[in-house]
Amino acid sequence: MKKIRIIILSLLLYSASGYGQEITGREYYFDKDLGVGTGTQQSFTASDSVTDNITFSITGLNLGFHRIYTRYQYNNGSWGIAEDRLFYIYDTTTPVPPAVSPAMSSGEYFFDIDPGVGKGTATPAFTSGDSTLQSITFPTAGLGVGFHRIYTRYHDLSSDWGIAEDRLFYVYDTTTPPAPIVQPRIVAGEYFIDNEPGPGHGTSITVSPSVDSLSQTLNIPTTGVLAGTHYLYLRYRDANGKWGIAQQVEFQVCSSLPTASAVALGDTNFCAGASVALQADTGLLFRYQWQNNGIDVANDTNRILVIYDTSGLYRVIVSNAVTGCAAASNAINVIVGSIPTITASGSTTICNGDSVTLTSSLGLTYSWTGGGNTESINVTQGGSYSVTVTTSNNCTVTSAPVNVTVDQGPTPPSVSFSAGTLSTVSGYNSYAWYYSTDNSTFQEIQSSDTNVIAVTLSGYYYVLVGDLSGCTVSSTGGAMFYAATGLPRIGNNNSITVYPNPATDEVILKGDILNNTKTQLQVRDITGKLVEVPYELNADKIKMTTSILAPGVYIVSLKMGEQETTVRFVKQ
């Protein structure tokens, strides 16, 4: 039995919505509208809006693209506009072989009106392929000022054109740049209190010179203004004589201000662990808000404030609970000798042989556990570290401890050699093999994060292993010499010339023995891993493309009939 399904399932089961009057009916149809009320009807609860998950039957529809339309009927008998979704039906009974699309070979573009396929302006040439990404500059000469659309489409090797894609753009005239809009400058201002006298009839504010924008500090006299809440209005006039909208500021005129003063009930210069109380004046209907360095102290609205650990300039704002009139007290400077803190330069878990720097917060003198009398110490041993600091107000306080842990690292592994292969114990978190021809300058072997590598070159080798913390250790015995063995070598590779060597983009192998149509070639990196390298064989010469290779040493194995040989080259 043939099974048919929709590629985009959300098109079979999707959310449809309608808004407006009360919605009482719904219908759907496929592809062609036969008229309102003639579609397949579906029932639902009438409402002024509808959001439904709807399942549609596709029985009887052919394979390919289709559109499904839905529309709603209102309680007055009228129908809404149909909404559509595109979907695709395909046959799952016969698996479709993957389509191999011919490569794109050329393109064209046109403006606004389609001249017909192949009749547009050719796009710049590009390398034929499955896809292309081009950055193209399109001339707009001859196009009128205004909106236009540019269309591009591409042609494949089967002479088929793709669908044109378009972008909207705008052409404007640059020959006569539009004059910048110059806003008239502000030349005057005025203010008034409570009652609007009309534009130009308030108390004048001088603006000199005229400006585009301004920020002013004004002293507004309140002589004659009664005690209570009032509103100040300010507005400004431009050079064209137009007034702006008045800005309102609420203010309070007080007949008298509350008494505001603060006293300290103890020493205001004290060490951590002590405290001091600050006290404000008392008065009928007084409210209090303490501030430190001009910022309100949260939840401190009592007459007395007790300070334990925060230095600063403290004062109290005293206000009348009825009138809202307020006054600020004198400031009291409180100095608290705070407990020092320790900052680590990095992780406090270090590898054996590494170190971490611990730095104290600023003080006059320092004394570290384990020794040290400077602001910072360099720690190489595990343990608990704290610092005792003398502060600027002669308090001696000790920090909380910082624990340093030393990771001893993994156990040094041994290395064994057999049949041209070096191996070490598995189970470490990381591996890095190193190679040197002279036991002095070592380089890490690429792609060597494994416990086994092939020895393709004679020389000195060692392995560096690491644990989960990133701590590393070298193999026991240090670097050891190992000879490359087991490589097939028949014939004399001196009969093959390798150039350039070192190479960048390509390497050429040349020799009479290569003049064999049965020549086979393999390339391996220094770990013995086989790598793919494009090459061409012409007469007695092989040209290999090496631009795709990572820098390193590579070994080329050649087999010509019954003969085999190897050569090597270096990719820079």
Characterization of this structure:
The model is unreliable at 1-20 and 486-492 (pLDDT under 50). With 572 residues, this protein is an all-beta fold. Strands 1, 2, 3, 4, 5 and 6 form a 6-stranded antiparallel sheet that branches. It has 7 domains: 4-91, Immunoglobulin-like, CATH 2.60.40; 104-128 and 141-171, no CATH class; 186-253; 262-337, Immunoglobulin-like (Sandwich); 342-407, no CATH class; 415-482, no CATH class; 493-571, Immunoglobulin-like, CATH 2.60.40. The protein is flat and about 115 Å long. The two termini are 62 Å apart. It contains no helices and 48 strands.
Features:
572 residues; mainly beta; Immunoglobulin-like; 7 domains; six-stranded mixed sheet; 48 strands; flat
Low-confidence stretches are 1-20, 486-492
* Shape type: flat
Global mean pLDDT? 85
Amino- and carboxy-terminal Cα gap: 62 Å
For the record, the CATH architecture of the largest domain stands as: Sandwich
- Number of helices in the DSSP assignment: 0
Number of strands: 48
Q: Indicate the CATH topology of the largest domain.
A: Immunoglobulin-like
Radius of gyration: 43 Å
Going by helix content, strand content and strand pairing, the class is mainly beta
- Count of folded domains: 7
CATH class of the largest domain: Mainly Beta
Can you give the helix content as a percent range? under 10%
Largest sheet: 6 strands, antiparallel
Strand content: over 45%
